[in-house]
Specification:
With 106 residues, the chain is α+β, with helices and mostly antiparallel strands. The chain is built from 3 helices and 3 strands, in the order E-E-H-H-E-H. The N terminus is likely disordered.
Length: 106
């Protein structure tokens, strides 16, 4: 698995080791304008809430062939506050969009 890292430490009896998957999240200016009333910290909080909900789902999931617990954390986040968002276009296929986003340097 690409960028999953294991947290080393002593494993308590009966607990699975945890692997964290770092995320790079971004909010476009439409999301920013709709949810934050022009207050960027509110967007970061919203993104954090989404990751918490995802972690609740994955903490209850037992993978048959995978012994670790999976958790997600936000490693980087960016909020596009204006319409100059390079990813706000309908001209990209999903594959091209993900490729562009994964190679974007902040």
């Amino acid at each position: 698995m690409g960028s999953i890292s294991i947290i080393n430490g002593k494993k308590r009896s009966g607990e699975r080791k945890t692997r964290f998957c770092p995320l790079y999240m971004a909010a476009d200016n439409k999301f920013y304008n709709h949810h934050s009333k022009n207050f960027a910290p509110a967007i970061y909080s919203k993104l954090g809430t989404y990751v918490e909900e995802i972690n609740k789902i994955y903490s209850a999931t037992v993978f048959t062939d995978y012994e670790h617990q999976v958790k997600f954390l936000i490693k980087r986040a960016h909020v596009y506050t204006d319409a100059n968002n390079p990813f706000d276009s309908n001209e990209y296929s999903v594959a091209k969009f993900l490729d562009l986003f994964s190679t974007k340097q902040q």
